[in-house]
Amino acid sequence: MGDTRAPGQRAGLTRDAILRCARDVLSEQGIDGLTMRSVARRLGVAPNSLYSHVAGKDTLVDDLLDDVLGEVAEPRTTEPAAGLRQIMTSTYEVLLRHPDLVPLYLARQGSRGGNAQRLGEIMLDLLDAAGIAGPEAQEARRVLIVYTIGFAAMTTGSTSDAATSLLSRDVLAANFTTGLDWLLEGILATSDNQLPPHSL
Amino acid sequence: MGDTRAPGQRAGLTRDAILRCARDVLSEQGIDGLTMRSVARRLGVAPNSLYSHVAGKDTLVDDLLDDVLGEVAEPRTTEPAAGLRQIMTSTYEVLLRHPDLVPLYLARQGSRGGNAQRLGEIMLDLLDAAGIAGPEAQEARRVLIVYTIGFAAMTTGSTSDAATSLLSRDVLAANFTTGLDWLLEGILATSDNQLPPHSL
DNA sequence: ACCTGAACACCGTTCAAGT
DNA sequence: ACCTGAACACCGTTCAAGT
């Protein structure tokens, strides 16, 4: 299948094409089916060709996860509570749109890419505007991220169960919002009193 | 290293010995270092010998995770709120005692083994005593499990960061308890009013 | 710069033995 | 029943080419 092209012939590979293909393979074959070789096979290319555009499998997956975070909408307000609610809700919705990726986010506890950093700084800015900074802010951010990914995993995972399918997407989304508001309440309360920080 | 034993010579392998060895390999080599072959090597045995005692790698990891859940203490009361708080707190403490396993629990969203089932039924009994049953109970249980594993992941993960190390284990544990109480409050409130179930 | 063939050092797992 | 050697069908990655 790869013999149609001699060494030196261009295949028109692109970092974006590889990422898109990896996403297709993931949705069709699952996590275990996502390999360098399966991606290369689907692109009609030798396995090692990918290394001209991607450092390796780990960074490919990292890039995959971070690319999707580009879909997250930035908050339309600088008011801390509303802004944090908007950005986390948007993240939750994006994750639901890519159920195959959720387990990967879980395993890596988020992403370290450019989009993740951008969103993370927006979160820190919002927390700072609420008077929360330093290690407390970092912890609050991690709580919100873990909560969001965890809830997304709960929503997307094991929906094959007959009983849980009775709970509609809408009900789960409402539950997410309710819990999120509780978290925000607790986090933002730390800036208004003298109690030891209990950011969850 | 395996030539000291001819085919047919017993090596005294045990399912428990394999599990214990796998845990040692995991803590020393990390997740990527945990392979059938590395476990066998450490036991001074051929790789395929393990298959006389374990079905395969997936079930080995499953067994590994479920075994640890045997350390979780059963609640000392049948009062729903207190009982659920006890069982989740004990689970959280057990997970902190085995930081290497936490990412694996995350990826598999818990465990399906005997200990997990036993704990899961205790949780359902406690919820039932609070008047919560059916799909609402299953969702509440999943919320509590995801929250606990997620928080354990947050506590154990990325503690190499200088800023976060300022937050002591005790502070994080207190945060876990605070958030847990919020969840329990919300979950148990669903049995006392007519509002649509918002189990988080 | 981009792609190839070939190879290396691994995997998990199976199969046909041996005692 | 328990363990072995050998093998199969894979991995990710590297290296020396070719254009």
UniProtKB/TrEMBL annotation, chains A, B:
Keywords: DNA-binding, Transcription, Transcription regulation
GO molecular function: DNA-binding transcription factor activity; transcription cis-regulatory region binding
InterPro entries cross-referenced by the UniProt entry: Homeodomain-like_sf, HTH-type_TetR-like_transc_reg, HTH_TetR, Repressor_TetR_C, Tet_transcr_reg_TetR-rel_C_sf
Transmembrane segments: none
Alphabetical GO biological process terms: negative regulation of DNA-templated transcription
Coiled-coil region list: none
Sequence ranges assigned to domain HTH tetR-type in this UniProt record: 12-72
DNA-binding feature ranges: 35-54
Gene3D superfamilies recorded: Tetracycline Repressor, domain 2 (1.10.357.10)
Top-rank lineage group of the source organism: Bacteria
PROSITE patterns reported in the protein's UniProt record: HTH_TETR_2 (PS50977)
Record-linked Pfam families: TetR_C_1, TetR_N
Record protein name field: HTH tetR-type domain-containing protein
Species the sequence originates in: Phytoactinopolyspora halophila
Phylogenetic classification of the source organism: Bacteria, Bacillati, Actinomycetota, Actinomycetes, Jiangellales
